[in-house]
Amino acid sequence: MEWKLLPELTHGTIISFWQPFFDVWPVLDDLKSIPALWKTSRISSHKHLLPFLTNISKVHCERISNLILKDWEILSTIIKQWLELSHIRYTIDEIYEIYLHIYFIINSRCLYAEVPLKKDDRTSKFTLVPYVDFINHSEEMDCYCYPKIDYARNDGSGLGQFVIRGGSYTYKTIGEQILFNYGPHSNDFLLNEYGFTLGKNCWDTIDISNTVQDMIIQKNDIKMIEFLEENGYWGEYMINHDGFNYTSVVAISLYVTNDYDRIGKLILGYLTEDYFLPKIKQLMIEIVNDLMSKYTTQNEGLKNLNISSDTDTCVYNLLNVFKGYTDILENVDI
Question: Biological process GO annotation list (predicted)?
Answer without folding.
Answer: methylation
